[in-house]
Structure formats: structure tokens, C-alpha cells
Design a protein that fits this description.
This protein has ten helices and five strands; from the N terminus they run βαβαβαβαβαααααα. It is an alpha/beta fold. It folds into two domains: 140 residues, Response regulator (Rossmann fold), CATH 3.40.50; 55 residues, Winged helix-like DNA-binding domain superfamily/Winged helix DNA-binding domain (Arc Repressor Mutant, subunit A).
Amino acid sequence: MIRIAVVDDKINNRKVITDKLSRNNFFTLVFQAVDGEDFLQQMQKLPQDDQPHIILMDLEMPHVDGVSAIGTASSLYPNIKFVVLTIFDDDEKIFRAIRAGACGYLLKEESGEVIADMLMNLWESGAGPISPSIAYKILQMVQMPSNAKVEKQTDNIFQLSDREKEILQLLSQGLEYKEIGAKIFISPNTVKKHCISIYQKLHVNSRSQALRIAYTKGLI
């Protein structure tokens, strides 16, 4: 039996998910949690032999959100697989979830049969379950130019300052303004100003676009 836990702040969502999986005899529900904080507390109480094999994690939740919970739990429980199950398909959320330690990213619109099949594949072969539209976005995020291998840009053609390059590197780790500021001893507002400058120099409008350029051009 594959042990599952479901983390979602909405009771109706949890019911829909558990109903979908209950039709398959290979899954057993260990527990449900209302947010990341509740999830981490319940995990601490479980004996190791009773811990879930797979966690289905929503992203937008109060107290401790899905990305933060995955980031904390993936280091505490390295043998557990964390799969995002959400309605959100924007680049930044995908990027942050994967950076935090998610091995899969599924949209809630997927049928119960599809979700069950993908979780079975994860259990049997380690294949990360990813909705097709999300897989396409991930390819777009990391795809290198096809005409040539991009060399490391040593001349800093975008004229980023040392501080901006440092912040760009921290952005690639999925950190928020407050977390970045704490690491380099500046205020979140100053971090935001640096990010605006970075976006202007890279000619982009979002973190995900900036990181895509940074990876492609060898800036990080």
C-alpha cells in the first residue's frame, strides 16, 4: 500500500482529492492537514514506519504555505516524495516549488485516474508526476537556445552590479525579499529596489523571466 497525506486548507478540496484516490486500492490515507504548519506538526507525531510515502501539497495556504512546508520537510524527511497539487500554473510558483524540493506538479483539474496513475508511476519508477501543461512550461523555463551552447558571460553584458548579481543568485534559490534581506543585511524594500533594477537591465517583468535569462546567459 502507498501511504498518502493530503495538505490543503479547504475541506472540500481535501474531500475531492481523497475521494479520487479512494477508488484505487493501492492507496491509503495517513492523514489530512489544513496547512503547512499543521502538516509539520502531524509529521513530528508519527513513527517513521507510519509516515506517508507521498505528500500531496497545495501551495496557497495560511500560516505556512506549501513551498515553505516542502522546503522544510524535504530536508527532514528525504525519503518522502512531495507532489504539488494546485490550481496555479504560473512560472514563478512552479519554479519555487521545484526549487524547494517538489518532485512533481499536478493541477487539480486532472482526473482521479490520471492522478492515481501518475502517483503509481512515481512509486514504482521514481518518475515525477507532472501535468502536461506544466511540463511544457518547465521546458520553456530551462530551455537553452538551440543554435549553440551558450558560454558563460564573463563581461557582464547586462551591467549588473555585484549586489544585483548576489540578489539574482538568491532569487534563484526561491527566497522572498524578506529572506534575502536577512541574508545580506539589507531591508526588504531595498531588495525590492534592486530587483526592479535587475528587471530593467534584463528587460523583463518578473522573477521567472529574470531567472530564465540568467540561466540561459550563464549569469547564475
